[in-house]
Design brief:
Rossmann fold; globular
């Protein structure tokens, strides 16, 4: 079974994915790391040098051509489900889980590492919260197509695993 973790940047997809993979004895892949391997530079540098459109094309190509192990958890980028047919691809290829967090919680999490994230690097807290609210309005129709939605506040691997087993 392949499990794709989706949600806004900073919601905890990578942290949850690593822990869940360990708990379930699955492999773990981070789509951003795979993009960096393909591009030979960091996501931030690629995005800055080539723009969002080129980044989204590389993201789609990487998502669609990776050699996924059978039992694998994949952490995706925040915008991954919202471009091309990426959400449909993930739903056909495995189970999607949306890690949901409210805008203020996301802003607090992003504040410390925002310099690594080109879309929010130069925003103050008020701008960041407004940006997150706007982006969530755009992205929620995609995120809500996931098989499972989990509340990202205080989520545990045990809760996610139990919810998965209840559904499947």
């Amino acid at each position: 079974m392949r499990i794709f973790l989706i949600g806004f940047m900073g919601c905890g997809k990578t942290t949850l994915g690593k822990k869940l993979a360990q708990k379930m004895s699955y492999s773990f892949m981070d789509l951003d790391h795979e993009l960096e391997k393909a591009a030979g530079v960091s996501v931030s540098n690629y995005f800055s040098a080539n723009g969002e459109e080129a980044f989204r094309i590389l993201e789609k190509d990487t998502l669609n051509t990776l050699d996924y192990p059978t039992n694998c958890i994949i952490s995706t980028g925040g915008g991954t489900p919202c471009f091309f047919d990426n959400m449909e691809f993930m739903n056909r290829s495995g189970i999607t889980i949306y890690v949901d967090l409210p805008p203020l919680a996301l802003a607090k999490r992003l504040e410390y590492g925002k310099h690594k994230r080109p879309l929010v690097a130069n925003m103050d807290e008020q701008q960041l919260v407004a940006f997150i609210k706007e982006k969530l309005e755009e992205r929620n129709p995609y995120y809500e197509r996931s098989f499972l939605t989990v509340n990202g506040i205080n989520i545990t691997t045990e809760q996610v695993r139990n919810e998965l087993f209840q559904i499947f």
